[in-house]
Design goal:
Blueprint: H1 23-28, H2 35-41, H3 46-63, H4 72-88, H5 112-133, H6 153-162, H7 166-172, H8 180-187, H9 194-215, H10 225-240, H11 247-256, H12 265-278
Helix pairs in contact: 2-4, 3-4, 4-5, 5-6, 5-8, 8-11, 9-10, 10-11, 10-12, 11-12
Length: 294
Amino acid sequence: MEDHSLVTRDELPGSETRERLTAEEKRALKFPDFSKAFLRVQSYNTEDIFEFLAGLKTRINDGGRHAHVFAGQVIKEFIAANVVLNERVGLKRDPGPAPAFRPQPRRNNQPKENMLVLSNVAQVIDLHFMWVLGLRFEGDVQEAAIFGETFEFDEAYRHVNTRGNIPVKLEALGLNNSYDFHFSRIGSVVLSLPDDRDHQLWVKRARERYLNKLNSRPVPASVDRREWADLVTADGLLERLGLKTDGRALMAVTALLGRYMSDRPREYERKLKCAQAAVNLPARSTQSKNKERT
């Protein structure tokens, strides 16, 4: 699967919020009804959805300053494709990658209103991704209305329109100071911090760098070179984060990249050692470090 993801340093954090809305205006905010598009896109395999999103990305980017481009059926198809992929993150069969590692249109070349809508739609997709990973809330808090037995898209849309800037939203989610919930900030497009976006960009480059190395070296015919490249990249990301590498951490990070290899953590560790040997990279200690790879 070709990597169409776009994580650039010039993307601004999505801090756009509708200020001074009345209670009635807040209740009137509704997320686009993407149900028909969802049913259609749901029948596609993950690779086809990736290509579909790549086409939407090109269409939106090429539209530039034309406000009508990100509207109507286009926005519904964009949402549907991302929601379907969210539901496939971590699946054994035909898994999907996290939002940050999918084709994403640029937000900063859109008309102001489109930029706002695109940012807030992307935040709802990020929240749904976190819900798929298992994030839940209880009690009398606004987030509990979103993260229930089902994910409430309208409540999530009101939340991202009125809650505040990105650090405030992450604090409300309990995700401002750690990489809890399966590294969900690393997998999010808008609900992430500047360091997270640096890590996303590093991951994108590292995957290609390790894949190029593996393509130039003999490996057993049964080996999936992209899988091995993702394992070495996952280990490198954990090292950048100052975290130890073990099977469960590798499972969580490679799930963000659209990988599922086994339900046994030790199998991830075994494959990582083989992949590291293939690219002449020594296995590091499983103890926590904070040394960056270049």
